[in-house]
Write a structure and sequence with these properties.
By secondary structure, this protein is of the alpha/beta class. It is built from 9 helices and 10 strands. The chain has one domain: 3-Layer(aba) Sandwich (Rossmann fold), CATH 3.40.50.
C-alpha cells in the first residue's frame, strides 16, 4: 500500500473486547496515546472501568455490548476458550463494522506452547463464520503485551501482518497499525491464511523464552 493510498483513520474510535487482559490493555494504551477514543469491554462493566482507570489517557470502560455498539472498529482480544461464545453474543452489535481478530488459539504443556486445531481453520475464520454481517480482519497477533504496556518504550519495532478478504478493511487496519509509533501494518494475504500467522505466535514464545526477549517480526524489502 503506497503512502498516498493510506486512509485517514485518525478520527476513528476503537473498542477492545477483552480489554481487561494485558494485550487488550496494552493496545488500548497505545491507541489512546496515538489520539484515538478508546473503549475497553468486558462481560463485567465494573471490571472494564477499573482496567480503563489503570490505563488512563482518557480510556473508558464498559460492558461488551455497549462498547461494540459505540465503537467504529472493534478489536477482539478475548481468551480463546471464550472466543466463539463472545462473538455469538455480539452479532447484532458488530454488524457492519470492521472487526479485528488478534486471538491466538494456543495450548500449553510441559514442552511449551503449540497451535491448537480450529474447525474453521483459524480464530479469524471462526470470527468470520460467526459474524457474517461484519468485515473481519486478522491482525496484531505478534505484539508483546509487555512492550505495549511499558512506559519506557516510546516506539514499537514491529510489523503487523494484516489479513482479510475486504481490501478497504485491510487498508484501514494497516493504517491503524501504523498509528502506533514504530509499527507498520503489512498486508499478509486473505483470511484463509490466518492460521499460520496465529500459529507463529507459539514460535515467538519459544524465541522469547530462549533469549529472554519480547521478540517481534520485521518484513524486509517492503
Amino acid at each position: 500500500m503506497a503512502d498516498s493510498a493510506i486512509p485517514d483513520v485518525s478520527g476513528l474510535s476503537l473498542g477492545i473486547l477483552g480489554g481487561t487482559g494485558d494485550q487488550g490493555k496494552g493496545l488500548a494504551r497505545r491507541f489512546a496515546l496515538a489520539g484515538h477514543k478508546v473503549l475497553i469491554g468486558s462481560r463485567n462493566a465494573e471490571r472494564a472501568q477499573q482496567a480503563a482507570e489503570s490505563i488512563g489517557h482518557g480510556v473508558a470502560g464498559g460492558e461488551n455490548a455497549a462498547v461494540a455498539t459505540e465503537s467504529d472498529i472493534v478489536i477482539i482480544a478475548v481468551p480463546w476458550d471464550g472466543h466463539k461464545a463472545t462473538l455469538e453474543s455480539l452479532r447484532e452489535q458488530l454488524a457492519g463494522k470492521i472487526v479485528v481478530d488478534c486471538v491466538n488459539p494456543l495450548g500449553f504443556d510441559k514442552r511449551g506452547s503449540y497451535a491448537l486445531p480450529v474447525e474453521e481453520g483459524s480464530a479469524a475464520e471462526q470470527a468470520a463464520a460467526v459474524l457474517t454481517d461484519s468485515r473481519v480482519v486478522a491482525a496484531f497477533h505478534h505484539v508483546s503485551a509487555v512492550i505495549l504496556l511499558d512506559p519506557e518504550v516510546p516506539e514499537i519495532d514491529l510489523d503487523v501482518f494484516v489479513l482479510g478478504d475486504d481490501r478497504e478493511a485491510t487498508d484501514t487496519v494497516q493504517a491503524l497499525a501504523s498509528r502506533i509509533p514504530g509499527m507498520r501494518g503489512i498486508y499478509g494475504g486473505r483470511l484463509r491464511n490466518a492460521h499460520q500467522i496465529e500459529a507463529l505466535t507459539a514460535n515467538l514464545i519459544s524465541v522469547n523464552r530462549r533469549y529472554k526477549s519480547h521478540a517481534g517480526i520485521r518484513v524486509t524489502d517492503v
